Amino acid sequence: MFGVHFMSIRKTRENILIPRSVDIKLSPIEVAQSLRHLPGFLFFDTVNRSDECSFKDTLSIIGAMPDQVFRGHIVDHNNQLRDYYDEVGNFRQHVDCGFPIGGLFGHIGFNGKYKFGDYSKLLVYLHERNEWIDIGGLSNFISSHPTNATTINSLKFCGGMGEEAFCLMVEKAKEYIASGDIYQVNLSQRFEAEWPENKDPFDFFKALRECSPAPYSVFHEFAGETIISSSPECFLSMSGPGISTRPIKGTRPRFNDPGDDERSAAELITSPKEISELIMITDLERNDLGKVCEFGTVRVSELLKLEKYAQVFHLVSTIEGRLKPTIDHLSALISCFPGGSISGAPKSRALQIIDELETLPRDIYTGAIGYLGVNGESQFSIGIRTAYLRSGKLFLHAGAGIVADSDPQLEYQETLQKASGFFQAAMSF
User: Fold this and answer.
1) CATH number at residue 31
2) Which residues face 338 on adjacent strands?
3) Which residue is catalytic, options 115, 249, 305, 347?
4) What φ, ψ does residue 202 adopt, rounded to 5°?
5) Whether 233 is catalytic
6) Torsion of CA 334, 232, 29, 426, to 10 degrees
């Protein structure tokens, strides 16, 4: 049960939203399926419960029917997002409950263009407590007639640059590194698949959720496109004045054979290249947080931590700080965007080189996907292991971090490893 401190958490447009416990005898995926037909449907889901993955929250968030949709660019002078956030700020107070009580859900693309919906109807499932929380009455829309899954006989990703073209791009990046322009840069390629007519992309998301579970799984369908994400990486997690980021660098494949799997992990944690790459990005992210945090509060709480996922191993660091009193969550998000792990170091020059070398726009890939909660709880993942469905095509990008001693062929193979969960999902449903 919730105490009095939850009263009047959000008051905008004469609304007061109060979270309440509800008795729902369905799993998160079953509830999501029953609400999937509603406009603006979203499902933000924690599904990787591995002890080796130390992400903040074990919760699932389902939303629908946004009150407003905001589109624009984060540097626009007439920024609707900022106007809305400031308006809500007149009533906002931090309530450390671990989940958003309504707010802005959406994404910022790599190019800075954003789409957010103002969601006042949410269902939140707290895994540790086995408890459903209803915000705004969304539980009233749960259907007693589950939707039948559609069957897709073929979904084939094609495209990509091919190994030769990708390796040439890596060699060019290494020339920039050798000349001192940059120390590291993330380069990617794009795949695409024709989407079969009259098939539900939520079924693809469910297949991906089974074969490639991740801490930041997202299905969001609104404003003319569908986002399907299985991201392992936290860009920013903010609770009141507290802020943290968890950059990922270094990748090795998983194996069914325990011995091969152990050797792959050992190779990653002893690789001078991967270690130096993550240390570089950790320092970059420490600098980014330093711009928005109070002096002396930024610290690296985890360095070079090995984490296990369904298809790959990763190395991860955690950097934490305390926001300045003049910096709110939206300001911190815009200041730190885009993440250093998917751009490079120095960030500004790496972004220029990405724009020069990559032949196709990244769009949502390597942007930020998440929410700004009206109660001071906000979280964004990095838009990796992320596909987007638009105009009958499903687009998927995969990249690798390039440093001075990168092997172009190995970097190309790394992009395929990172996309393997989507390739597997395409064949398994």
Assistant:
1) 3.60.120.10
2) none
3) 249
4) -65, -30
5) yes
6) 110
> Is 249 among the residues known to form the active site?
yes
Task: Give bridge partners of residue 6 from the DSSP assignment.
Answer: none
Q: What is the DSSP letter of 6?
A: G
Q: H or E stretch including 314? A: strand 312-322
Which whole-number Å values give the CA distances from 415 to 163, 246, 336, 384, 400, in the listed order?
A: 10, 20, 25, 11, 6
One-letter amino acid for residue 258 of the chain: P
> How far from 24 is each of 2, 28, 108, 123, CA to CA, in Å?
17, 10, 33, 10
**Cα 415 versus chain centre, distance:** 18
Cα distance between residue 286 and residue 166, in whole Å: 30
Out of 115, 121, 206, 233, which one is annotated catalytic?
233
Domain count, the chain: 1
The overall pTM is greater than 0.90: yes
Domain that holds residue 324: 4-427
Residue 318 token pair = 């955690």
Q: Residue 126 has which token pair? A: 């707290």
Rounded CA gap, 302 and 385, in Å?
23
Sequential DSSP letters for 221-264: EETTEEEEEEE--EEEEEETTEEEEE-EEEEEE--SSHHHHHHH
Per residue of the chain (429 residues), what is the pLDDT tens digit?
Answer: 343 333 333 444 445 578 999 999 999 999 999 999 999 999 999 865 444 444 445 899 999 999 999 999 998 866 788 888 888 766 566 667 889 999 999 999 999 999 999 999 999 999 989 999 999 999 999 986 556 655 656 689 998 899 999 999 999 999 999 999 999 999 999 999 999 988 899 999 999 999 888 999 999 999 889 999 999 999 999 999 999 999 999 999 999 999 999 999 999 999 999 999 999 999 999 999 999 999 999 999 999 999 998 889 999 999 999 999 999 999 999 999 999 999 999 999 999 999 999 999 999 999 999 999 988 999 999 999 999 999 999 999 999 999 999 999 999 999 999 999 999 999 876
Angle, alpha carbons 223-102-377 (nearest 5°): 110
* Backbone φ/ψ region at 344: left (φ over 0), alpha (ψ -120 to 50), beta: left
Backbone angles phi, psi at 423, to 5 degrees: -60, -40
